UniProtKB/TrEMBL annotation:
Residues that span the membrane, as ranges: 20-37, 49-68, 88-106, 113-136, 156-174
GO cellular component terms attached to this protein's record: membrane
Domain called Signal transduction histidine kinase subgroup 3 dimerisation and phosphoacceptor: residue spans: 195-259
One Gene Ontology molecular-function label: protein dimerization activity
Protein name: Two-component system sensor histidine kinase DesK
EC numbers, comma separated: 2.7.13.3
Length: 383
């Protein structure tokens, strides 16, 4: 359950517990002390010099305690919070000073309750602050009715209510500010996490395919090094070229500018399948595929062929491409028990398909083996 923070706690949260209100905030708050002119005038009208001195002294001490509150607020923001006993102690001090004003200032001394209600609304938790303000309001209204010579004009109770209401609005503004900052922080963290996931997915797809092809070609070169040194040298040259291309892809992915080419992936797929002694039945053109589907289809080719070379045990791999659909089929062992997209690569491919408003299908090929298909959203062709 959310609660409205007190002024010290809210200020600390807003500024990260580094700095509270401005150094000269007490000057802005001091403007409201002009309401103490009424008790000052009442004390000044007293004929006794001792009464006047005591009255002026209590009013000055009360005003000083009110202004000192903003210094306490600043220090509490730097410390992170203000202990509860200090909050109640500060309110008790102000209340005692207000009561000491009444014998010399008379009814006008109730003006101090307005300042105390405002400070109490800032220092206490919301339920306690409401009870505290209601107690002050009741005390002012009852005293004006029972103390001889005092008039019941309702102005003090109304002023206490307005002062508390104004501070309540400030507390709500603080709470909204805290919630907004928290929401912004959550959004920033989600954006960072999403970028991490994107980079991890790209890095897996890039290195998974490249290292698989490099491994297959290196094994082939090792087998041919004695029987056919020339062919082995060509395979080693291909390994070097693939390693350099993989390094360039990683650098491009880090920079965030990497895009796949569907035609390029088909060429790489043919080379990888031939190196693994898998017959490749691949399309020779991608002209019918619209531009907005080509990058997604390129990822399908890369992930599908990588899985065929790694896991399938297939002798033949077929890729079929249409304007809005691509299929990667093999005649190997077929899907694992339970089916579904269970590898990191297939999970990443599903995320890419979802982002492109496409559907991913994995399962058993009609003729045996494994089938990977992605169906993109329909594309309206220009007349």
């Amino acid at each position: 359950m959310k609660t409205t923070p007190t002024a010290p706690d809210g200020t600390a949260e807003r500024v990260g517990m580094v700095a509270g209100p401005g150094r000269w905030a007490w000057l802005a708050a001091g403007i409201w002390l002009f309401y103490l002119s009424q008790p000052l005038q009442s004390v000044a009208e007293k004929r006794s010099g001792v009464v006047q001195v005591v009255g002026f002294l209590t009013i000055i001490l009360f005003a000083a305690s009110y202004l000192a509150f903003f210094g306490v607020l600043r220090r509490s923001a730097q410390a992170g919070t203000l202990p509860r006993w200090q909050r109640f102690g500060y309110l008790a001090l102000m209340l005692v000073l207000c009561l000491l004003m009444i014998p010399t200032a008379g009814q006008t001394g109730l003006t101090g309750l307005v300042y105390i209600s405002a400070v109490g609304m800032m220092l206490l938790e919301m339920p306690a602050s409401i009870i505290f303000v209601l107690a002050l309001l009741a005390g002012a209204e009852i005293s004006m009715r029972v103390v001889p010579g005092w008039t019941d004009d309702g102005s003090y109770g109304f002023a206490i209510f307005l002062g508390a209401l104004a501070v309540f609005g400030m507390r709500r503004a603080i709470q909204r500010s805290i919630e907004l900052n928290a929401a912004r922080q959550d959004m920033a963290e989600l954006a960072v996490q999403e970028e991490r996931n994107r980079f991890a997915r790209d890095l897996h797809d890039i290195l998974g395919h490249s290292l698989t092809v490099i491994t297959v070609k290196a094994e082939l070169a090792g087998k041919l090094i004695e029987a056919n040194p020339g062919r082995a040298a060509a395979e080693v040259a291909d390994v070097e070229s693939l390693a350099r291309a993989a390094l360039a892809d990683v650098r491009a992915a880090v920079a965030g500018y990497r895009e796949l080419s569907l035609a390029g992936e088909l060429v790489s797929a043919r080379a990888a399948l031939q190196a693994a002694a898998i017959k490749a039945d691949l399309p020779t053109t991608v002209d019918e595929v619209p531009e907005e589907n080509r990058e997604l289809f390129a990822w399908v080719v890369r992930e599908g062929v990588t899985n065929v070379v790694r896991h399938s045990g297939a002798k033949r791999c077929t890729i079929r491409i249409a304007a809005a659909q691509i299929e990667v089929l093999d005649d190997g062992l077929g899907p694992t028990p339970g089916g579904g997209a269970s590898g990191h690569g297939l999970i990443g491919l599903r995320e890419r398909a979802d982002a492109a408003d496409a559907s991913l299908q994995v399962g058993q090929n009609a003729g045996g083996g494994f089938r990977l298909a992605v169906k993109a959203r329909a594309v309206r062709m220009e007349p």
